[in-house]
Write a structure and sequence with these properties.
Belongs to the class-III pyridoxal-phosphate-dependent aminotransferase family. 37% of the residues lie in helices and 16% in strands. A hairpin with a 2-residue loop joins strand 14 and strand 15. By secondary structure, it is α/β, with parallel strands linked by helices.
Length: 441
């Protein structure tokens, strides 16, 4: 690893995202290097990364193939627009992603983040109905506790109140399904819980209120991520697919987290056996090395736009950095790394080991639930009266002091380690959590 850098002289200019800036700047947590499963802090400590950066470093930090691909591409060509021109890597990458996606999902539109991918998918959904002569289909249905990025579209269909509170009014013509979490019935579930498939039928209630002819799309995460790792009940996604098909509503899976191996397969939709009409992806798409996202569309959705004169711009949408050469190089190298290192094939085995080790925490102080699916988990803690989230935040800080990085969502400790994690490292994560929970009140 590289020698740790010194701290900046002035921390004031940088306005950090999702951060208590004044608190952070009084005692900054600085990382200066990363390799494999670890970060190195500015004071030289190794930190085991149990969050894959931010759900994204699926192959571990700084894999050689990805580093070299970015370096080589930067030396060859730094940038070219994808407006009325492009470059070979964009087409190669789209083909590789289509090969990994569920059958029939073989058209890829590139963005620069998961937030942009979600807003793009929502726009495609509305435009799809309009080009087919159903311009009244504009309503978008999200789900409680869902996270879909921080663009206005994604924020509008998301269902985490604190994220939405300060930015309204948001988009109109939006409604929400209930979430699927039921602690009384599904506590300590391994994989998909048995209870809750009927909650998909709430879409019928929404249809009765709004009429199906006004609804463009339903968007859900196959597994709710930032809302607390909520696996879908057995049969839930199948029922949602059935209802969307019956009513002519597009089904969007937000796979920004569940894509690229997180659930033991290239995409969560494959792992869970349900194919949507649109998939959003990002994060593991480049292993977090270069910002990139995308929307994978079914052939039927894409073909609906391909009418009229050939000079027609079929979708009046895009970003300056769509299909950026460095991002494409990073993504192609990431996919090669996942495949050459056997990370997709290793998925089922490593996920089973993860499940067994994580659930050994049952019975530790303050734990009221453990949820796991694929290489994801949430350790839910009982809340202190009047201080929701405080216990989990203290536990996470104690884990960090022991050299393990975990994430907090409400009063849950959320885990999403790189796919290269070993059983020994899994045990280290659970030992740090157990020790922390014994120390917090």
């Amino acid at each position: 690893m590289t020698t740790p850098q010194t701290l900046p002289n002035d921390l004031q200019s940088y306005w950090l995202p999702f951060t208590a800036n004044r608190l952070f700047k009084s005692n900054p947590r600085m990382f200066v290097a990363a390799e494999g499963m670890h970060y190195r802090t500015s004071d030289g400590r190794l930190i085991l990364d149990a969050m894959a950066g931010l759900w994204c470093v699926n192959a571990g930090h700084n894999p050689p193939r990805i580093v070299k691909a970015i370096q080589d591409q930067a030396a060859r060509m730094d940038f070219v627009s994808s407006f009325q021109m492009s470059h070979p890597l964009g087409f190669l990458l789209a083909e590789r992603i289509a090969d990994l996606a569920p059958a029939g999902m073989d058209r890829v539109f590139f963005t620069n983040s998961g937030s942009e991918a979600v807003d793009t998918a929502l726009k495609i959904a509305r435009a799809y109905h309009k080009v087919r002569g159903h311009a009244n289909r504009v309503k978008l249905i999200g789900r409680a506790r869902g996270y879909h990025g921080m663009g206005f579209g994604g924020l509008s269909v998301a269902g985490i109140p604190r994220h939405r509170r300060d930015f309204g009014p948001l988009l109109g013509d939006v409604d929400h399904l209930p979430h699927t979490h039921d602690l009384a019935r599904n506590a300590f579930s391994r994989g998909q819980p048995a209870w809750g498939a009927h909650l998909a039928d709430e879409l019928e209630s929404i249809v009765q209120i709004h009429d199906a002819s006004t609804i463009a799309a339903v968007i859900v995460e196959p597994v709710t991520g930032s809302g607390g790792v909520l696996p879908p009940p057995v049969g839930y996604l199948e029922r949602l697919r059935e209802l969307c098909t019956r009513h002519g509503i597009l089904l969007i899976f937000d796979e920004v987290i569940s894509g690229f191996g997180r659930l033991g397969a290239p995409f969560g939709s494959t792992a869970l056996g349900v194919t949507p009409d649109l998939i959003t992806c990002a994060k593991g798409m480049t292993n977090g090395a270069v910002p990139m996202g995308g929307v994978i569309a079914s052939r039927a959705v894409y073909d609906a736009f391909m009418h009229g004169p050939e000079t027609t711009v079929e979708l009046m949408h895009g970003y300056t950095y769509s299909g950026h050469p460095l991002a494409c190089a990073a993504s192609l190298a990431a996919i090669e790394t996942y495949e050459q290192d056997g990370l997709f094939e290793r998925g089922p085995e490593i996920c089973a080991t993860w499940e067994n080790i994580i659930h050994q925490l049952k019975g530790a102080p303050h734990i009221c639930d453990i949820r796991s699916i694929g290489l994801l988990a949430a350790i839910e803690l009982t809340s202190r009266e009047g201080a929701v989230g405080a216990r989990a935040a203290e536990a996470a800080e104690l884990c960090f002091e022991q050299g393990v990085l975990v994430r907090v969502a409400g009063d849950s400790l959320v885990l999403s380690p790189p796919l290269i994690i070993t059983p020994e490292q899994m045990t280290r994560v659970t030992e740090a959590i157990h020790s922390a929970l014994q120390q917090v009140a």
